[in-house]
Amino acid sequence: MMNPKNNKTGCLIVVSGPSGTGKSTIVNSVLDTCKELSFSVSATTRPQREGETEGVDYYFVTKEQFQQMIDNNELLEHAEYVGNFYGTPRKAVLDKIDNGLNILLDIEVQGAEQIKRQYPEAVTMFVVPPSWEELERRLINRGTDSMEKIQARLKQAKSEIEKIENYDYIIVNDVLETAISEVISIIATQDYKYDKRINDLTEAYSL
Questions:
Q1: d(CA 19, CA 42)
Q2: How far apart are CA 69 and CA 63, in angstroms?
Q3: Which of 26, 74, 122, 148 is the most exposed place for a label (fewest CB within 10 A)?
Q4: At what angle do helices 132-142 and 147-161 cross, to 10 degrees?
Q5: pLDDT at 2
Q6: Residue 207's pLDDT is what?
């Protein structure tokens, strides 16, 4: 439902892709640049990593708490990824969109599919490194997972990349600064689409 005080609803922007592609680094840089964007913090059952902040990077919850959120229909989307669960709190996202704010989601491929089914107008971007070898190198150099976990992530990545055709845009993260600029440019163009501008013109031109 559109906020009666606002002539337009916000845009739901999804950035997704396999683990190790650098999508979270891109998202953080975009948010630093585009102050008008609002970030949706996901809930996850995975352990908190060094340097991560509760409520900023993720809401860290137990599997029991996560299941309760599912049962209460509190999640816009949710997915399992390599033994851990991730989900987007529903109310916070929909309230912001209703008030005309553009929301940026950094979510897993399973979750992105759910979002697109519910909200076909969502803008989706798929982030990939320039090659399979580069993806493997990045996962190893990250130094946060065992080789067993890395192999699981690579297996998952293969099935995710096969779904790349379902996305609106593809971001090849070879040079980080270029990838960041591409995402910012895509987001900027959304405000010029017909459905975002027509409400402003209807009254002015008596359309």
A1: 15
A2: 10
A3: 148
A4: 150
A5: 38
A6: 67
CA nearest neighbour of 137 among 158, 122, 154, 121: 154
- Site of tokens 């689409």: 193
How far apart (Å, rounded) are the C-alpha atoms in residues 113 and 51? 29
State residue 93's pLDDT score. 92
What 3-state class would DSSP assign to 166? Answer: helix
Q: Is 39 helix (H, G, I), strand (E, B) or coil?
A: strand
Output the CA torsion sign for 4, 5, 6, 10. negative
Global pTM?
A: 0.81
CA distance 70 to 86: 11
Residues 6+ apart with CB under 8 A from 40: 88, 89, 92, 93, 96, 103, 104, 105
Taking the C-alpha atoms of residue 105 and residue 108, their distance in angstroms, rounded to an integer, is 10
Report mean pLDDT in 10-residue bins for the chain, 207 residues. 54 93 94 91 92 91 96 93 89 90 91 90 95 93 86 92 95 97 94 76 75
